[in-house]
Design brief:
The chain is mainly alpha-helical and 148 residues long. The chain has a two-stranded antiparallel sheet with strand order 1-2. Helix 3 packs across helix 5. It is globular, with a radius of gyration of 19 Å.
Length: 148
């Protein structure tokens, strides 16, 4: 089975270590206007920008969450075999189905700025559903093997 495209297992631990701080930062930035002062940049008037100050805390938090989820989802397990590859593929397919369903429901329910916020959070659903389903099936099967 071709598993060369998966990241080494040690990256999964990094993803689990960083997901909570970056998710908390994203939440604090979105709902409590928390910003890091050192991420504020001032743009001078020029060809592309007017004079303005921009803070990139939100971008840092988003990239941190995306990278953390990526590391968790696409790192090898300690013992990677064909069965785990099958669980990965099934979980990815279910995540895509669920994401499509969520998009359809969200499009029918949300309008205006609410729709924009919905789409912002929906960026994470494929990775989150994949990780949740993959871990759930993996743990369920490991428990059933221990009982047998």
């Amino acid at each position: 089975m071709l598993t060369k495209i998966l990241l080494p297992h040690r990256y999964q631990l990094l993803g689990w270590m960083f997901i909570l701080p970056f998710a908390a930062l994203l939440f604090a930035n979105n709902y409590f206007d928390f910003n890091f002062a050192w991420l504020e940049l001032e743009f001078r008037e020029g060809a592309l920008f007017e004079d303005s100050k921009e803070n990139f805390t939100n971008e840092l938090a988003l990239m941190g969450v995306f990278i953390s989820l990526f590391l968790i989802a696409f790192s090898r397990e300690k013992e990677e075999d064909e069965y785990i590859q099958k669980i990965r593929l099934d979980s990815l397919l279910i995540a895509c189905y669920a994401n499509t369903f969520i998009l359809i429901i969200g499009t029918l329910i949300f309008y205006g700025f609410g729709y924009l916020e919905f789409m912002g959070y929906n960026m994470f659903t494929i990775q989150l559903i994949f990780i949740a389903r993959f871990r759930w099936v993996l743990n369920r099967d490991r428990k059933s093997l221990k009982l047998a």
